[in-house]
Amino acid sequence: MFELLKTDPQTKARLGRLTTAHGVVETPVFMPVGTQASVKALDPRELREMGTQIVLGNTYHLNLRPGLDIIRAAGGLHKFMNWEKPILTDSGGFQVFSLAKIRKIKPHGVEFRSHIDGSLLFLGPKEAMEIQRVLGSDIAMVFDECPPHDAPAREQRLAVERTIRWARECREQPRADGQKVFGIVQGGSNPELREECARALVAMEFDGYAIGGVSVGEAEPEMMKAIEFTEPFLPANKARYAMGLGTPAQMIELISRGVDMFDCVLPTRIARTGTAVTHTGAFALKGSAYKTDFGPIEEGCECYACRTFTRAYLRHLLRANEILGLRMVSVHNSHLFLKIMAEVRAAIAAGTFAEFYREFIANYTPSQKILAQRQRETER
Ligand SMILES: [Zn+2]
User: Which of 42, 74, 184, 272 is most buried (CB neighbours < 10 A)?
Assistant: First the structure.
């Protein structure tokens, strides 16, 4: 399923090719997030035009609404949302543990109350795989337990034990035609737990491996460590996916540490508050500095928003709460994430990734929050 085409000689960056039932995905890849069977504010034509190779769907959300019967009647998730390219579905584990009101963790799953209507539901390995089978995703994720990053050591250990046991149960469930399944490594920022979880999952021979329990509120240095504690135990010939990350600079850092796949709501989420991302960092387009700025969001960007509208006009739309404003910033931000991945792939192929990496990180200004986290780390 995964072909490792090239490894960068100076870093751990990898160029790869993932073959799925709905087509080939070139890695490193960014996957726009379509939690509710829609990448917020973007339609499939726009997604295709900006070079989207694969999108995400979500077991927890789609099972609650519209419900499996409707998606089954539509002929699966691809047909329902009219997306012909690959889809990866998350198992719902993360949402059960972060959104839902958990009533009880049982041996074969979790009893919880829906965050929508409070109804009592049960999701475990068997149910999560059955839902993903009906959705018909190209890549299904195992049902895991993702504890909070500051959970006590005992809880982290229990989560790893359940994650391993549930992964084994997931592996035994029936799948959709050609559906691949990825394991998810948990273990927080504990190196022993990360190693133990990775080794146990690798022994089960999944089609790929995700690193979960990252970007769950922990500081950036801790997140980097979680990846570094896990990566050495993952096989070179399988794809590695860091879940729920990150900023452009974080993705480049993780690519240099051997990660191939990313998904993040960031580009569309911050677009809705009027924040645009460029190769050099993010900025609030609503700022008065852009009142009469008739340049594009980012000079040289080929996205539809930058080809068509000025910063001054988009700033006006955002301030007037016009839907077009947030749609266009969503177009630009998503395009940027995909474009950066294309640049990364070209650099790895040309053998110039180390240079690209150094330059990118040097030119990128992280957010105040991330800078503060780094400062705290160096003071420790
Ligand atoms: Zn643009």
Answer: 184
Q: How far apart are CA 174 and CA 327, in angstroms?
A: 39
Token readout for 132 is: 């993903």
pTM more than 0.85: yes
Locate all alpha helices (DSSP H) within the chain, ordered by sequence.
Answer: 44-49, 59-64, 68-74, 77-81, 93-98, 125-135, 153-171, 191-203, 220-230, 248-255, 266-271, 304-308, 311-319, 323-350, 353-363, 368-379
**Lookup result for tokens 């508050």:** 273
Cis preceding-peptide flag for 187 (omega within 30 of 0): no
Closest CA to 256 of 4, 66, 8: 8
276 alpha carbon – ligand 1 mean position (Å): 9
Quick: pLDDT tens for 335-345: 999 999 999 99
pLDDT digits (tens, 9 = 90+) for 139-165: 999 999 999 889 999 999 999 999 999
For residues 190 and 152, the answer to whether their CB atoms sit within 8 Å is no
Give phi and psi for 285, each to the nearest 5: -70, -15
| Known active-site residue 263 | yes
